[in-house]
């Protein structure tokens, strides 16, 4: 599919926590832990593990610019505008750590969302990408809308506004996610033709994500001070708007003189936290249509005590690219 794709992050404290909703029904469980040190070190370690591989891969692929000579003539006629549009279906699993904001007089859950069967949780989806190209210059965009529900989750701890209480008595917790991810980028073809086509690009990625969680634990949890409680059941929702500038590489590796190729894409970015995305697959080109089957991974992390501690979407995607 068209490989997906700057904006300056707004003040993280100025709106990433809007649209909160709480409903509680239920009436003491909890083991006081030290969140300030243990949780922060764990968050930073997980973030490095997920972000560093993307940076390494980006550096390796960019090195192709200097090691692979440009051969053969350009696939697109010189001076001619070329357009393409790609509707596609992506079937990602969702893995996330959500750190909801606590209300004034109570606690809020930190929730682990695990991978479930997507077809059972997918409510709605819209996925499309497109590109405009002339000579070596291009502009591309990618848009995703996802509505997932009933993702299996676990309440890992309760946040009482600076003090955390661990919880290991989760009975039944499910999370849902509704959101859009929009990427926009502009690129330059460093290698424009066979055997390797490679674009370097810069752009932005916006993600508007609204997770919600319905939980049920064995009993009410009392905060360290004794004046705050977290009920045994209830629901919570919150929204995060993430803006990240990105840089990356994308292109094709042609398999000899055949119509088969290996499409690839990789970007890394920062702004409202960090983000990276990678894609690799196989494609076959007809006269004006390409069929692509790829595996795609998309990652977000706001860091700190923000809502999206880490969130990743991973899975296969199938698309048809129409060129004109």
Walkthrough of the structure:
The chain is mainly beta and 324 residues long. It contains three helices and 18 strands. The protein has a 16-stranded antiparallel β-sheet that branches. Strands 11-12 form a two-stranded antiparallel sheet. Strand 4 and strand 5 (108-113) form a beta hairpin.
Layout of SSEs?
Blueprint: E1 21-24, E2 31-32, H1 35-62, H2 64-67, E3 81-90, E4 93-99, E5 108-113, H3 118-121, E6 122-134, E7 137-159, E8 164-166, E9 173-191, E10 196-216, E11 221-222, E12 229-230, E13 233-237, E14 240-254, E15 260-271, E16 273-285, E17 289-301, E18 308-323
Antiparallel strand pairs: 1-13, 2-8, 3-6, 3-18, 4-5, 4-18, 5-7, 6-7, 7-8, 7-9, 9-10, 10-13, 10-14, 11-12, 14-15, 15-16, 16-17, 17-18
Q: What count of helical segments does DSSP give?
A: 3
What percent strand? over 45%
The proportion of residues forming helix, as a percent range, comes to 10-25%
> How far is it from the N-terminal to the C-terminal residue, by CA?
15 Å
Shape descriptor reads elongated
Oligomeric state of shown chains: single chain
């Amino acid at each position: 599919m068209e490989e997906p794709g700057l904006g300056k992050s707004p003040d993280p404290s100025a709106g990433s926590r809007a649209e909160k909703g709480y409903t509680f029904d239920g009436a003491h469980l909890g083991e006081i832990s030290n969140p300030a040190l243990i949780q922060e070190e764990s968050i930073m370690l997980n973030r490095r593990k997920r972000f560093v591989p993307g940076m390494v891969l980006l550096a390796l692929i960019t090195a192709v610019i200097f090691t692979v000579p440009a051969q053969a003539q350009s696939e697109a006629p010189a001076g001619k505008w070329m357009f393409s549009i790609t509707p596609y279906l992506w079937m990602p699993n969702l893995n996330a750590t959500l750190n909801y904001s606590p209300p004034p007089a109570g606690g809020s859950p930190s929730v682990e969302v695990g991978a479930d069967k997507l077809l059972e949780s997918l409510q709605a989806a819209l996925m499309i990408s497109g590109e405009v190209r002339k000579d070596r210059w291009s502009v591309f965009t990618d848009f995703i809308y996802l509505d997932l529900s009933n993702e299996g989750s676990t309440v890992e701890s309760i946040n009482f506004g600076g003090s955390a209480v661990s919880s290991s008595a989760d009975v039944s917790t499910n999370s849902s996610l509704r959101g859009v991810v929009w990427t926009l980028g502009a690129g330059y073809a460093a290698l424009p033709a066979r055997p390797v086509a490679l674009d370097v690009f810069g752009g932005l990625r916006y993600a508007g994500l609204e997770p919600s969680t319905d939980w049920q634990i064995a009993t009410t949890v009392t905060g360290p001070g004794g004046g705050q409680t977290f009920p045994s059941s209830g629901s919570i929702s919150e929204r995060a708007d993430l803006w990240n500038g990105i840089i990356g590489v994308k292109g094709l590796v042609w398999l000899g003189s055949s119509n088969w190729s290996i499409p690839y894409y990789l970007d890394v970015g920062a702004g409202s936290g960090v983000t990276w995305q990678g894609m690799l697959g196989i494609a076959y080109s007809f006269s004006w249509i390409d069929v692509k089957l790829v595996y795609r991974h998309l990652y977000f992390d706001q860091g700190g005590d923000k809502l999206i501690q880490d969130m990743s979407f991973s899975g296969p995607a199938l698309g048809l690219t129409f060129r004109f």
